[in-house]
Design brief:
TPR-like_helical_dom_sf; Serine Threonine Protein Phosphatase 5, Tetratricopeptide repeat; repeat; TPR repeat; 2 strands; 67% helix; 1% strand; two-stranded antiparallel sheet
């Protein structure tokens, strides 16, 4: 009996759990999710179910689109109530699984008297609940953005817009919240400007960063409202940035300067043939210029390569519209 006990102690000493944790993360980086899932499952057993290991196991399940399974793993241990990252991942899984009522319930349970994450840990290295001031702005904004997505999926655009605004004010760099408001047409042109003016950029950025942020966000606002107004020149380092070039092309498009717009979009697509922001502008410009052959070739290529993408069928529709 004593010899068996010694052997057991020896075998436990040999197993280095940290090594397997690093292995899981390296497989995730390599997009080998099955291997990551396999070893993450073993790490949870080896560590006796430590919260951080459960989180990474759920993360592997999420990456493999096993959303219900990942949400169940976290919620069955009550980790969505004790750790902020587990809370975020559980809601994200429920949203992807279209379990919207459950996602909203988890979000609501984590908010008491208007304070997010009461008595939750922000780090897996400590079991001490964090105070509100210890929550990082990007973590707060990410959860608020997620709440907005849940409301939007439930067709409650008013509450969704409020959550996106809160997310953006919490972290002015939360571009996805900004994009949701602008791309989903949730605000009028005036409301967009008011939002931009209300952002606490001066508190979260130094002067140069604030100017850059304003320039980049202004380039995404309703271009057709005043297309003749040119954007201020970007910093030299961003002069060749493709997103900035697409914003300029859109201004030219809404100003009916289709030739200049086409020149810019063609240059962008030479460098990035599938730039998701450039393709809609480029296709619309080809329609205006009646470039049927180019439109046919582009639509054909997009349908062949990306039949699941809406932009491919938009190109097809535009081609048949022109002919």
């Amino acid at each position: 009996m004593e010899g068996e006990r010694e052997e057991k102690v020896k075998s436990e000493q040999i197993i280095n759990v940290e090594k397997y944790r690093r292995l899981v993360k390296s497989y995730i980086d390599l997009h080998l999710y099955s291997a990551a899932l396999f070893w993450a499952d073993k790490v949870v057993s080896l560590s006796n179910g430590e919260a951080r290991d459960v989180y990474w196991l759920a993360q592997c399940m999420f990456l493999m689109k096993q959303y219900h399974r990942a949400a169940h793993l976290i919620r069955s241990r009550g980790l969505e109530k004790t750790h902020v990252l587990c809370h975020y991942l559980a809601v994200r899984c429920l949203l992807e699984a279209r379990e919207l009522s459950e996602a909203l319930e988890v979000l609501t349970d984590a908010e008491k008297e208007g304070v997010l994450f009461p008595n939750m840990c922000t780090s897996f290295d400590s079991n001490v609940p964090a105070g509100f001031d210890d929550i990082t702005p990007n973590l707060t904004s990410s959860v608020l953005f997620l709440k907005g997505r849940v409301y939007e999926a439930m067709d409650n655009r008013g509450l969704a817009a409020d959550c996106y605004k809160q997310a953006l004010r919490s972290d002015v760099h939360c571009y996805e919240a900004f994009e949701a408001l602008v791309q989903h047409q949730m605000l009028s042109a005036q409301e967009e400007q008011e939002l931009l003016e209300s952002l606490p950029a001066s508190r979260q950025c130094i002067d140069a960063e604030e100017q850059l942020l304003r320039l980049l966000y202004e380039s995404k606002l309703k271009k057709y409202q005043s297309p003749s107004e040119s954007l201020p020149p970007p910093p030299p380092a961003l002069a060749s940035n493709l997103d900035v070039a697409v914003a300029q092309a859109e201004r030219h498009y809404y100003n009916c300067n289709y030739q200049q717009c086409s020149r810019i979009t063609e240059e962008v697509l030479k460098k990035d043939p599938y730039h998701s922001g450039c393709l809609p502008v480029h296709i619309s410009c080809l329609v205006e210029l009646k470039k049927v052959n180019k439109l046919f070739y582009l639509a054909h290529r997009l349908v062949d390569l990306h039949p699941e993408m809406a932009i491919a069928w938009y190109a097809v529709g535009c081609y048949y519209y022109v002919i």
